[in-house]
Amino acid sequence: METNNYYIHGVNGPVITVRGGRSLPMMSLVYVGNDKIPGEVVSANGDTAIVQVYEDSAGLGKGQPVISTGRPMSVLLGPGMISNIYDGIARPLRTIAGMTGSFITKGITLPALDLEKLWDVNIEVKDGDDAKGGMIFARTMESDAIEHRCMLRPDLKGKFIEVKPSGRYKVTDVIAQIVDERGRKTPLMLAQEWPIRRPRPCLKRLPITRPLVTGQRVIDTLFPVGKGGCAAIPGPFGAGKTMVQHQLAKWSDADVIVYLGCGERGNEMTQVLDEFAELKDPKTGHLLMERTILIANTSNMPVAAREASIYTGMTIAEYYRDMGYHVALMADSTSRWAEALREISGRLEEMPAEESFPAYLPSRLAGFYERAGYMETLSGAEGSITVIGAVSPQGGDFSEPVTQNTKRFIRTFWALDRSLAYARHFPSINWTTSYSEYFIDLKDWYENNFGSGFTKMRQQIIDILGKESSLMEIVKLIGADILPDDQKLIIETAKVIRQGYLQQNAFHKTDTYMPPEKQMIMLEVILYLFEEAKKLTSRNIPLNQLVATGVFSALYRMKFDLGEGQTKDYFIKLIDDSISKVLEGNE
Ligand SMILES: Nc1ncnc2c1ncn2[C@@H]1O[C@H](COP(=O)(O)OP(=O)(O)OP(=O)(O)O)[C@@H](O)[C@H]1O
Ligand SMILES: [Mg+2]
After folding, report:
1. Other residues' Cβ atoms within 10 Å of the Cβ of residue 542
2. Which atom of ligand 1 is nearest to the CA of 428?
3. Which of 219, 224, 235, 549 could form a disulfide with 239 if both were Cys (CB 3.0 to 4.6 A apart)?
4. Interval 284-330: pLDDT, tens
5. Whose CA is nearest to atom 15 of ligand 1?
């Protein structure tokens, strides 16, 4: 660490002008002022550099010293991250709270990992073994749900020597040495540092062929996101963006969840902490917190750390992907992140582009979403990162720059709708403006896992909803009564699909998560009713008679009742009986 003679020349919120010495390396980590606040060099020119600081700059003043580290902003990766909660630059908030009584961090430098904790480590290499970047050399159980696989830093190569036996180690204990061709030794520890702004390397990008199964019907059935893909959740204030993020963090079939609270309310993160500490994964029975990492840069926390937080989160996600895990990264909200960019850019007096966002907003968004993917890792395993970003456009106007630019990099768009939310139709994902471009790549998976015929049923559902939309124009003008029965049937069935299928109550004990096999049953039953009813109307039997049997409304409740004592056969019989009753009445 060189102290040189860097000093503060000016303070403008989180943007600090630093003078002295040789020019500071771009993007390097510095400690600013008497409080030693961490910051990053964002521009450097001769003896003047601009630094963004990751804490409140209130105590900083002209002339205070600045320490250069010469190293990029990095995070210490290793066992102990799971179940943890970090700030935007990966400082453990619980530890800080233990030290200071609150989440106030002034000048605290703390590694992401507990350096004292002993881990039961199984070391899988021996002296003389070839060492190759990315290979797994040791394992330890990090939580009940996650086995931590310690990987060689991607740039290391050579042979293992001085390998210690399996046993109990701290993350920074030297457990072996890597000796390269020229005889240079590098000590090997369980933990490794990685610069947050540099994507971790992989062998190659693989095609996306399976969905992230979420247990949310409207998503799994209509608008899936592929594992390794990107989805955006734009929505006006209060439309349910956070709720969708929470639902996916809880129920999606990812191995590891990285949840990034970016500029949103602090109590939402506390809620995640509390709920996840109690909720169990329906598939594994493990507590949800045992697979979750939280990163909190809430609205009351420093704005520059918000800019960094998505890179911190992404780096952690990549690290678990490299172990061969499927990771889902939720960012709530990317708009708040973009606002942080805008604020810093403004203070740097850069030339603003659209709506005062900096001209590099699109490339920063691209850089973030491009780090998602389904990959073959350096160790030859498969791992993925699925990114789900909430977008909070001002006034719900999707034409603003963050939503529009995000659309260029994502392929699933869950457009939340104010009027649906107002009508308490949740999740308020609008089925006409939302889309998933992944479905075509996932078709085989669906046919094999949801059941053959799924694609056709999905299309029928989409068609019925589409026809309903156009009919509603007429209905609004002249009412439904004068519609012919085949069109009335569309309206009745679409209502079942909307209320009985697409609506899903996140607060309901069983409805909160629906496994694929049940979704498939529901689709079959709804479409069975549709087909049978169509037969009736083609015989000129009035649809009203079937509606009067209550069979349509019975299907509104199917999502609650299915499996709670009622089976698919029960509903099919109910439909058959209702049809017979109507037929008898017409004999
Ligand atoms: N799936 C759901 N089931 C039941 N209620 C829901 C669901 N989704 C959203 N809600 C209701 O809508 C409210 C607002 O949701 P949420 O906080 O997720 O909105 P938001 O879009 O994140 O809002 P903000 O713009 O303030 O961040 C929730 O508190 C809840 O009452
Ligand atoms: Mg929210």
Report:
1. 14
2. 8
3. 235
4. 889 999 999 999 988 888 888 899 999 999 999 999 999 999 999 99
5. 240
Report which protein residue has its CA nearest ligand 1's atom 30. Answer: 240
Give the total residue count for the chain: 587
In which residue ranges of the chain is CATH 1.10.1140.10 found?
A: 454-585
Atom of ligand 1 nearest to the CA of 245: 18
**Considering only CA atoms, which residue is closest to atom 23 of ligand 1?**
238
List, for residues 473-510, the tens digit of each pLDDT value: 888 888 888 899 999 999 999 999 999 999 999 999 99
Out of 3.30.390.10, 3.40.50.300, 3.40.630.30, 3.30.70.1350, the CATH code matching 204-436 is 3.40.50.300
331 CA to centre of ligand 2 in angstroms: 11
Average of per-residue pLDDT across 17-41: 91
**Which of 443-478 are b and which e, b meaning 16 or more Cβ less than 10 Å from the residue's Cβ?**
eebbeeebbeebbebbebbeebbebbeebeeebeee
pLDDT per residue as tens digits for the range 343-354: 999 999 999 999
CATH number of 116-195: 2.40.50.100
Residue 243 Cα: closest atom of ligand 1:
18
DSSP, collapsed to helix, strand or coil, labels residue 586 as coil
Residues with Cβ within 8 Å of residue 281, at least 6 apart in sequence: 145, 287, 288, 291
pLDDT tens digits, 385-431: 999 999 999 988 999 999 999 999 999 999 999 999 999 999 999 99
Structure tokens at 1: 């660490």
Closest ligand 1 atom to the C-alpha of 246? 18
Q: How far is the CA of 332 from the centre of ligand 2 (A)?
A: 7
Residue nearest to atom 16 of ligand 1 (CA): 240
User: Does residue 2 carry a pLDDT above 70?
Assistant: no
Under CATH, which architecture does the 2-72 domain have?
Answer: Beta Barrel (2.40)
* Strand locations in 111-184 (E): 119-123, 130-132, 136-141, 147-151, 157-161, 167-169, 176-179
Contact, 83 vs 289, CB < 8 A? yes
Is it true that domain 454-585 has CATH number 1.10.1140.10?
yes
Q: How far is Cα 469 from Cα 415, in angstroms, rounded to an integer?
A: 16
The residues placing their C-beta within 5 Å of ligand 2, an ion, are: 241-242
pTM: 0.95
Q: Which residues line ligand 1 (CB under 6 A)?
A: 235, 237-243, 264, 392, 426-427, 504-507
